[in-house]
């Protein structure tokens, strides 16, 4: 844990990142620069030239994200925008890509439908057996831990070391943890991708994503991809995300602490057939979670008796929004099988929000009692 703690971002300094660089009379809150054109007589030199290439609101947001990640960042209009940038900027025909077979399903779709037909060989492995077979001959290894929605873990440091030794690069989707909960770059991973639609934004009112890397060549490749493909975020979304990040620390702390308390209690409830939460000592991933995660996250899965009972639980609990996606201030839940994930019909992914924990427990327990 020592190493992990040492690299934690200073969150007080984060809140004053902008303020400490201000001149007298400037606004304390971040201005929203909503312009496609810049006043540009004569030679463009190094001035902002066009809205697809430069935007001051993105730059401020990337500066904030850089503080959180401890690495330069580039923002994208969604998590998939960031994942596409990372994969299209690094892969070429004839190369081999390894992805988790049980990770976020749209990453698999992207690989299957678009990367394969460009001559990239796509290999899938379940997260729980990700290291089986080694990493020789794999050019890009894409990781997701905890995997969404199964919440299996993979040893980031071990995989990063092995892939680097055989000449490949590693990309980790850190959406479920945020840089406050897990720091893949500090564990040796080359690139982090994330959907900021989830806990980073936190208010369920925007879609965005980012890429973070300490490798200047990879950063340049991702930057070029954004400029040339046009996968740019809107300035208003960037502004909203910047605002959301100012409360990330308090929101995330509340969500993770509540999840730890609730998981212990939910594990005892007779209506819960199975539970996965990396923070539970009985979880198969607990030891690895303790060694590589700073927090255990705010996601857990509950398996209830059947689809009907799971729907009843989700739809009758007054403090649960029946919704896809996660990481908002409002607790939410859904049955993942409705999207085709390989899970039990009664499998519920629960995202713990910012409600006071005792109120939330009363509501969850009450809904489970009626099943
Ligand atoms: C939601 C999600 C994404 C995709 O993000 P969008 O912002 O919806 O494009 C990618 N990875 C994981 C793990 C996610 O949960």
From TrEMBL:
Its cofactor is pyridoxal 5'-phosphate. Signal peptide: none annotated. The keyword Lyase applies. Keywords: Lyase, Pyridoxal phosphate. The modification N6-(pyridoxal phosphate)lysine is found at residue 198. GO terms for biological process: cysteine biosynthetic process via cystathionine; transsulfuration. The keyword S-adenosyl-L-methionine does not apply. Gene3D superfamilies: Aspartate Aminotransferase, domain 1, Type I PLP-dependent aspartate aminotransferase-like (Major domain). One of its GO terms (molecular function) is pyridoxal phosphate binding. InterPro entries: Cys/Met-Metab_PyrdxlP-dep_enz, PyrdxlP-dep_Trfase, PyrdxlP-dep_Trfase_major, PyrdxlP-dep_Trfase_small. One of its GO terms (cellular component) is cytoplasm. It comes from the Bacteria. Belongs to the trans-sulfuration enzymes family. This is Cystathionine gamma-lyase. The lineage of its organism: Bacteria, Pseudomonadati, Pseudomonadota, Alphaproteobacteria, Rhodobacterales.
């Amino acid at each position: 844990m020592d190493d992990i703690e040492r690299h934690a971002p200073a969150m007080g300094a984060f809140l004053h990142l902008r303020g400490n660089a201000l001149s007298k009379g400037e606004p304390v809150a971040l201005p929203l620069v909503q312009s496609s054109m810049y006043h540009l007589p004569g030679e463009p030199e190094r001035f902002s030239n066009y809205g697809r290439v430069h935007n001051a609101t993105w730059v401020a947001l990337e500066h904030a994200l850089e503080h959180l990640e401890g690495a330069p960042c580039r923002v994208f209009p969604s998590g998939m925008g960031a994942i596409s940038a990372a994969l299209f900027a690094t892969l070429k025909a004839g190369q081999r890509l390894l992805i988790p077979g049980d990770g976020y399903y749209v990453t698999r779709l992207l690989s299957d439908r678009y990367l394969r037909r460009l001559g990239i060989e796509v290999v899938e492995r379940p997260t729980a057996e990700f290291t089986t077979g080694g990493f020789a001959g794999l050019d890009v290894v894409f990781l997701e831990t905890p995997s969404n929605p199964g919440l299996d873990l993979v040893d980031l440091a071990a995989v990063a070391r092995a892939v680097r030794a055989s000449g490949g690069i590693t990309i980790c989707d850190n959406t479920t943890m945020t840089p406050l909960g897990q720091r893949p770059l500090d564990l040796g991973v080359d690139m982090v991708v994330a959907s900021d639609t989830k806990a980073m934004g936190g208010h369920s009112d925007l879609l965005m994503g980012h890429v973070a890397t300490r490798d200047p060549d990879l950063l340049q490749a991702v930057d070029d991809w954004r400029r040339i493909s046009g996968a740019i975020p809107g300035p208003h979304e960037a502004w909203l995300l910047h605002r959301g990040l100012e409360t990330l620390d308090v929101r995330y702390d509340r969500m993770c602490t509540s999840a730890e308390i609730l998981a212990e209690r939910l594990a005892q409830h007779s209506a819960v057939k199975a539970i996965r939460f990396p923070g539970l000592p009985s979880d198969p991933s607990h030891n690895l979670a303790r060694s590589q995660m700073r927090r255990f996250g705010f996601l857990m899965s509950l398996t209830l008796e059947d689809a009907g009972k799971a729907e009843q639980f989700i739809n009758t609990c007054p403090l649960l929004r029946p919704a896809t996606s996660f990481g908002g201030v409002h607790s939410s839940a859904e049955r993942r099988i409705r999207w085709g994930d390989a899970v039990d019909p009664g499998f519920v992914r629960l995202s713990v929000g910012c409600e006071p924990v005792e109120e939330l427990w009363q509501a969850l327990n009450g809904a489970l009692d009626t099943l």
